[in-house]
Specification:
By secondary structure, the chain is mainly beta. Helices cover 15% and strands 38% of the residues. The protein contains four helices and 15 strands. The two termini are 26 Å apart.
């Protein structure tokens, strides 16, 4: 059998034995239905875009846990809007949430999207596992392993799309339509939870919309 024929047969077998499930989430509706549980943040529906929600800025990290959403492995897509405020815009997505303070997250530093210094460019996107592996601990002890630069970064004051692929061992992050990963890291925990949510960091506001989950059911 030729290689092309083999690939076609393999793809058809994958479709036969697995079903791809796509689920789009209107985050604004979730907030109106009181299905977004706020942790250390005030969360409101965006007045200009009723499909989006807005986190206010407060000290400490903040979560918006999606109470009726279950997700462990697969791909998710999410539109995010931060701000070009150095040291005051950390926005992303939390997963494997054990409780209000124990979770994994991927987040972005939009103010570094326009950085000129290479050291700041390399801090555009970050993986963490709180509370044990903070960004500071990872940067000091495993420099450059859990954060990276984004090629062709977005405008820091505009919406951008994050695509996060989560499997048992790795997390891979893409931004907008790039085919090249902005970050790929080995996960720092074997714990399991289906709870997921939106995330903002210290003194950070943020906006979120257009959430979609894609999973393969065997």
């Amino acid at each position: 059998m030729k290689s092309g024929q083999f690939l076609i047969v393999s793809f058809l077998m994958l479709l036969h034995w697995n079903s791809v499930i796509s689920q789009s989430i209107n985050i604004g509706e979730k907030q109106n239905e009181k299905k977004v549980s706020a942790v250390n943040r005030d969360i409101q529906v965006d007045e200009k875009n009723r499909d989006a929600i807005v986190f206010n800025a407060q000290e400490g990290d903040g979560l918006g846990i999606l109470e009726d959403q279950s997700f462990e492995h697969g791909k998710l897509m999410l539109s995010i809007k931060g701000e070009n405020k150095p040291g005051r815009s950390f926005v992303g997505f939390a997963f494997n949430i054990q409780n209000d303070s124990v979770y994994e997250a991927i987040y972005f530093r939009p103010f570094n999207f326009v950085a000129k210094e290479q050291i700041r460019k390399s801090h555009m996107v970050q993986y963490i596992y709180h509370p044990e592996f903070t960004w500071k601990k990872l940067r000091e002890e495993r420099t450059g392993e859990f954060e990276n630069e984004i090629v062709n970064p977005p405008n820091p004051d505009e919406w951008f799309k994050a695509i996060i692929d989560i499997d048992k061992n790795y997390v891979t992050v893409f931004v907008n339509d790039s085919k090249t990963p902005s970050l790929k890291v080995k996960r720092l925990t074997k714990t399991k939870s289906h709870k997921v949510g939106l995330w903002t960091g210290f003194n950070s506001a943020g906006k979120f919309k257009d959430l979609e989950f894609i999973t393969i059911k065997k």
